[in-house]
């Protein structure tokens, strides 16, 4: 059974791509929740009003991102008839599957086992898998970064320097989908490679080329902003994509280095163990494996250090580091040493994977009384019934899988055994996410039941909707993306303005803000229905007319 670890095969690429692609699209929620809602609304507006350089929110340009990724969703949605969760997530799922293929390519240049192990560990990484079944612009940056690395490394290994001319196209593609950060991060990967290679001529050449490309791309972006919205939109684009990200709310410089232990588990902590235990060999470049680990380590460190400088920090900005972390951490499974720290860490990690089905079964059974008690908020009992039925079935399957693995693991060859055990851990992680965690999150975040109640109310009496102290570009987006057609949104913040709408509008507000209405306004406020927009408890009310009016 050591056939699993022989030379790389062309069929591996197709198997990895289509398996991952199907996994990412399986078990999607029936509505766009969380941050997905904004991109869904962008695509809906593009479908109704036509393509634009920037996505639009309520027909106003949204300068935070170029419109390229939304345009891809728009094209797919046109083919399928409307914007849905599937059409919105499909581009990211395809990009993420390509990332896994390229990760495999990089590892397989050393050995097939390294490539397969790195691919499985990337799938095992919570941040990567969560973003792959969502809408993520940072995955485009990640694909550009890992593709740039593969081109440079394979050109060096195989002596095919002509392929380096693909690099400028990848940098421009990264910018087209993610803006400046989409070009800068792949450029950092390129430059860090040549620094570690001590090829300073190539470092300066590609660093200068990246600066020229960045300047040209920024000029095109600002030109598009000027054509679409004049000088005002140009200023907004500069603030949104550069100045606002560099400044903004300051977070600790250690934000990524600490938070990654959870978001990038298990690849981040495992990569730290690999680097720490083999640091001397990596620095000395003792063999080609250690040279590769050096390239990957500097990639990860350079990007994480660079991203720690801007004031605005979000974990999904670190997605371009995941390919490097997965390739570094997977070295643990191919390291030949049978003693030392790395050997013991490998035994502990594989032991965790062996017993993970039993842990997953216990978690599934433990969550049942919590679900039954109604501790998790939600609308309706459909998801509760599903979870109550799925949890015991899932637990039984996990127990059978765990018993089978424990009894049959010696059936596989020594090198293939670690892959099979790792794959078991990955399957367990994905299964518990798809069957237990994702339905719970969806149950807490869904908005459509509330929207349906509001629409039923408006069918009885068609009054305009006004968001009171809510939005714009917050919960109102989650509401709007679930409407059947475009709706002109109105927003009011001052409670003293509410009497002007007496019996002329339905107001949507957070429960807390409704309770804080001034007494002279509150006595005329009539609650009509309650529900949730995402996880926020909201209320619909109107201001009743006074008898003498």
Compact summary:
By secondary structure, this protein is an alpha/beta fold. It contains 22 helices and 7 strands.
Properties at a glance:
549 residues, five-stranded mixed beta sheet, two-stranded antiparallel sheet, 7 strands
Report on this structure.
This protein has a 5-stranded mixed beta sheet with strand order 4-3-5-7-6. A two-stranded antiparallel ribbon has the order 1-2. With about 550 residues, the chain is α/β, with parallel strands linked by helices. It is globular, with a radius of gyration of 26 Å. The termini are far apart. It is built from 22 helices and 7 strands.
Please specify the SSE layout and strand pairing.
Elements: H1 10-25, H2 36-49, E1 56-57, E2 60-61, H3 68-80, H4 85-108, H5 112-124, H6 126-132, H7 138-158, H8 167-178, H9 180-196, H10 200-246, H11 255-263, H12 267-277, H13 279-284, H14 288-307, H15 322-334, H16 341-372, H17 382-408, H18 414-445, H19 448-460, E3 465-468, H20 475-480, E4 490-492, E5 506-510, H21 511-515, H22 519-522, E6 525-533, E7 536-543
Parallel strand pairs: 3-4, 3-5
Antiparallel strand pairs: 1-2, 5-7, 6-7
Query: What is the terminal separation in angstroms?
Result: 85 Å
Biggest sheet strand line-up: 4-3-5-7-6
Helicity, in percent?
A: 55-70%
Low-confidence stretches: none
Number of strands: 7
Count of helical segments? Answer: 22
Derived structural class: alpha/beta
Whole-angstrom Rg: 26 Å
Average predicted confidence as pLDDT: 89
Q: Give the CA-based shape.
A: globular
Return the string of H and E elements. Answer: HHEEHHHHHHHHHHHHHHHHHEHEEHHEE
The main sheet comes to:
5 strands, mixed
Tell me what portion of residues adopts beta-strand conformation: 5-15%
